[in-house]
Amino acid sequence: MPSFSESLIFHSVNWLGGFMRLLPLQAALWISRLVGTLAYYFDIRHKTIAYANIKAVFADSRSPAEIRRMTKELFRNYAQNFIDLFRLPLVTPQNFQDLITVEGIENLSLGLGQGKGAIMLAMHFGSWELANLSCAMLKLPYKVIVKPQTRYTRLEELLNSYRSCGGYVVLNRGMGTRDFVRSLQSNEVIGMVVDQGGRDGVLVPFFGRNASMSVGAIRMGLKWGVPICFSVIHRQPGGRHKMIVHKPLELVNTGRTEEDIVANLSQITKIMEDYIRRYPSEYMWFYKIWKYSDQTSITILSDEKTGHLRQSQAVARLLQKALAEREIRSSVQEVPVRFKGEFHRNLFAVLSLCLPPFFHQGHLEYLKWFLTGESYGRAIRVKSDFIVSCGSSVAAVNYFLAKDHGAKSVVVLKPGILGYRKFNLVILPRHEMPRQVPAGPRLVETLGAPNLITPEYQQEQSQGLLKRYSHLKNNLKIKIGLFIGGDSKDIFLSEHLLKVLVHQLTEVAQEISADILVTTSRRTPAAVEELLQKRLRKHPRCPLLVIANEDDVPEAAGGMMGLSDILVVSGDSISMISEAASSGKKTIVFLPELRQKEQRKSNKHLAFIEQLGAEGYLFASSIKDIGRAVYDIAKGKIQTKPLNDNLVILDALRKII
Hints:
Distance between the termini: 40 Å
Number of domains: 4
Number of helices: 23
Strand content: 15-25%
Strand order of the largest sheet: 1-9-8-2-5-3-4
Oligomer: single chain
Shape: elongated
Helix content: 40-55%
Radius of gyration: 33 Å
Largest sheet: 7 strands, mixed
């Protein structure tokens, strides 16, 4: 017995179809466009998918407002397609030409002249139900394959009755090959669609990214020599339509079947792309076009802080690895996010928290109020499936763009006032984990900050550094890598501290016959840079000094970690400490100076250093004891173990793909 819901849907559609056939055509179309407009505003699920698909194709060439208008027009056109279906019983051979203009129908007749039947290949474009009717009205023996509605059988029977009233035969997808071949042997035309190949389709380029296309028609064309004519129908003013039937395709047939299928489908998708570009709101964008693609993209939103960018890059690399496990290739792009000012950044975060979720899609112009012109221009073209960022300042933009494009959002560090539930994944170092929020699928805890440091990365960066500074080659001395950061809100590096540090390191280097490789950061104070230049630039124990604000050496940090045996790191940067601890090298972190001594117990840098030190990932030392610490490590009296959060992060990323 049919369910109540099925009966309700059947009778509603049956009544609606009858009512639409009583109305004049223009009145019925006007009502359908009104219904389509309402659906655009209330059918959030399909609007989300359609908008994201259209944006993926047109973001580089159309404005956000144009993409939004395309999406709204799509809903209106789709609603009109239902009216066309409901009114199929009213179409007769006498009034057919008043409704549809057909161009190239002789191409199908040409194909039938070979006596092998013909395949009219189409996509879900325009009012394709009328395209099927056209063949029957033009006295061609025509059958069309449709996907069966297994859930609503009575509704399917009703719709098929509309379709067959024009004289063509409806066949269910999944019909046997024998029945298919028999129809072609009877020199009939079979209507098929090529898009929506699903799991069984073949991946071919479609708007620059592989999508699954149906292969049945191409296989028949290659195996049996059946002519294949691509056709399309699109709307004209006044409720009319124009149908175009292309000449039979000249199939590539080298005998290498699978390669030939890809080549021929690629030929077809180029034709499809041309029509879609011309009439973008006529394609049915409501399904996930690239769901089965083997290609995807990742966008990193950067606040232009080096430490934050490196953390985002580390997560993006692990995400690429997780995708590669599923045989999905991915590319990464970096987009800088620059706000007009601190006020604009804070206001944007507050509004992102307050505005309803549906507002965040299709309103990219909203970003123009807050971002600089260049940053806005790049942000509106983001069309990736994954968006990664680090730091609270760009978390709101991550959320906004992810909602706009239907992407997965990944945030490193606290996302500010937005909280954790608005993102697909938040990665927090242990020292930032809120006590009241337990780790879970959306919130993963790490020991340190995500970083790029792996054995492979260190080897690659070391080779680059040796190529740049050839005098470091064939040097078998012990190497001490010194990494100097800078000042922050609660901690700082004084000249006095650096004097003590340099004095102790040069003395212990002399004692153990070691070289010192030194690099600063962009945050290093000018006075500290000047001191290092004065004390180390020509020192015999310092073959390399890189001043980050003067020397452009991208491989400095990774290369020095790879070349060094012992790492000495200033305790002002959690990102840099995490990198050193992850290197596998014996690591010493010297404690920074506090701006207010009473802050010691609550300072996150000190808490982080002391906790990792207690667990053996590094050795925490005061500045006055740094020489002794280096000496004891060099003599094997102190050991540290490598930090590795990658497995935890990788597992969390696998779950959101």
